[in-house]
Amino acid sequence: MTPREAAPLALDEEPFDLVGVGIGPFNLSLAALADGVPGLRSAFLERRPAFRWHHGMLIDGASLQVPFLADLVSLVEPTSPWSFLNFIKERQRLFPFYFAERFHIDRSEYDAYCRWVSEELASCRFGRRVDTVRWDADLDCFAVDVTRLDADDRDLGTERLYARNVVLGVGTVPHLPDPLRPLAGQPGAPVVHSADYLSHRERLIAADHVTVVGAGQSGAEVLLDLLRARPAGREGLAWLARTRAFAPMEYSKLGLEHFTPDYTRYFHGLSEPQRDALLPDQWQLYKAASGDTLAAIHDELYRRTHEGGWPDVTLTPGVAVTGARRTDGRVELSLAHAQQDVRAELATDAVVAATGYTERPVDGLLGPLLPHLVTDAAGRPRVDADHRLVMDGEVGGGVFVQNAERHTHGVGAPDLGLAAWRSAVVLTALTGRSLFSLPQRTAFTTFGLPDRAVRDGAGHGSADAGPSDPDSHSVPAPYSDSSAYRAVR
Hints:
Elements: E1 18-21, H1 25-34, E2 42-46, H2 84-90, H3 94-100, H4 107-120, E3 124-126, E4 128-136, E5 141-149, E6 155-163, E7 165-168, E8 172-174, E9 191-193, H5 197-206, E10 210-213, H6 217-228, E11 237-240, H7 261-268, H8 272-281, H9 283-286, H10 291-303, E12 313-316, E13 319-327, E14 330-337, E15 342-348, E16 350-353, E17 357-359, E18 398-401, H11 406-409, H12 419-431, H13 477-480
Parallel strand pairs: 1-2, 1-7, 2-3, 7-18, 9-16, 10-11, 10-16, 11-12
Antiparallel strand pairs: 4-5, 5-6, 8-17, 13-14, 14-15
């Protein structure tokens, strides 16, 4: 099948129960689980002509950092027709997959799986740009203004949908550090974000010297791919990172319990200052490279020492790029080493910035709703335990968010392993029905003490804000009922 194009939606006077803005893995998970809810009317809209997931980083052999069970539905509904295993079965590949013994599948295979789901689900509509969402008090629902687009992004007309609930899954955009931003896209030595790596790969391989900036998984994969493509003794590569080390992603079994609903609830129950202080210290949970990729880099470097000598590759952590300019057809990077308090310059022929992503701005999309949003001390939207934006009483419907709530829900917000669970929470909240048999407990670790009313005189937890705090919620049952602790008052 091909994606459903921008033919007008068949609308009647009854609003949709749910309109999803954007079709990435998270909203696609929601669409897949919503497909099994009787009587639920939903539509998911995406401006692109087809599903695409990190297309510039589908490097041959690159695998997901989560097991295949972290698909769109399995951790909530493993018997769903939209599971990865059913995709494999429908493609008549179940026995080859069984014998391959692959718990972590290739990124390209995950992309193909999601594309299959998006093409099969009737609720997914491509070639639609959502322009604005506003609350219509007279109709008691959201008015969603949409522009239909053809495959070349040309305007085919507008339409208006009505919805009782809206879910934003608009994804993220590549982040370039300030020193590199003016050089990106200019003629001369290429300065590109890793999101566009494959589009520039041949040019990067041909460059005499390439610098990769960023110690996360994308930076590691780009460096490894370039290293494998360049001759021994003439590698001409540098890998720079602000982190203190090229450290592996935390992948111990108990460490992974930070990506459970239990930890998400615990994190959401902390105060805003505590959450903001905690996130930077957790970078190895979600920003580091996999141990396997780091091992592969080391193996490749070691192999190049067999005949004597060292490869022409420089790996330097603890370094920040403080400036960049073009000089004589090259890029000259200004560097600062924090621990040494030393500055230096590096001349290179190309730069790949594997510097992560930032949340896509939605101020234009939600413009009419902004006066109704409740924000925190930093001006960010407050998000309740059900992943719903907190608004004043004038808005009667719900606006839910996907992967825009790390400041309130923690490191699991961008993790594929929590996609199905979050989708189930959203569907339960907007329907008011117990649609899924969600587990009460998901981790062996007990995060926090059982009674948040306990205080040691310093005043901790989001309960400090009082019972009217829209972020506050009770401690999950496994902790409040624990016999291991006795509350002290």
